[in-house]
Specification:
elongated, three-stranded antiparallel β-sheet, 4 helices, alpha+beta, four-stranded antiparallel β-sheet
Length: 175
């Protein structure tokens, strides 16, 4: 009796862990420093020592925190684990120090196409455009000029990349 496969999982193997380290370190080092400065500004607010410098500092620190979180989360989310199931894709995303699986039904997977850019090995970088995922994936789509929808990047570092791409294309055709 044959065992039926309900889902296939694709990952970046060792690359996934090394690509996680640098953005995570940036986030771990920069975010607390920015948070401490925001706390000091809040203390000024409580003690009613607000001046024009207070508001410009608050705005600058808030923007710094947003930039650090956006860049680090987008960099980490470029290397997702992906499961292909009969119901759709399951994508492991990183958000606020936690990995979680997000389901994307086949009806929300729009297109699988090659990007105009190449990955770090000079090979074609593939893009899976979906209806919704995370804000970080939407930022990735803005960086790669792929449109308004979030994207999942598939580089040549992905183990069994061709099998993954063919599986997704086949499911898109039949759904």
């Amino acid at each position: 009796m044959k065992k039926q496969i309900n889902s296939l999982e694709y990952s970046y193997g060792k690359t996934e862990h090394t690509m996680f380290v640098i953005p995570f370190l940036i986030m771990i080092i920069a975010a607390p420093l920015i948070a401490i400065n925001l706390a000091l500004l809040f203390a000024d607010f409580v003690l009613q020592r607000m001046t024009l410098d207070y508001w410009t500092d608050l705005f600058g620190l808030s923007m710094s925190l947003a930039i650090v979180l956006t860049i680090s989360h987008s960099a980490i989310n470029q290397y997702n684990k992906i499961r292909v199931t009969k119901q759709g894709l399951e994508v492991r995303v990183f958000s606020m120090l936690v990995y979680r699986w997000t389901k994307v039904p086949w009806s929300e997977v729009f297109i699988v196409k090659p990007s105009e850019r190449e990955d770090r090995w000079g090979k074609t970088l593939w893009i899976i455009e979906v209806k919704k995922l995370t804000i970080w994936h939407r930022f990735i789509s803005m960086v790669f000029f792929t449109g308004k929808h979030p994207v999942i990047l598939i580089s040549s570092d992905m183990e069994q990349r061709d099998l993954l791409l063919n599986s997704i294309k086949e499911y898109i055709k039949t759904s």
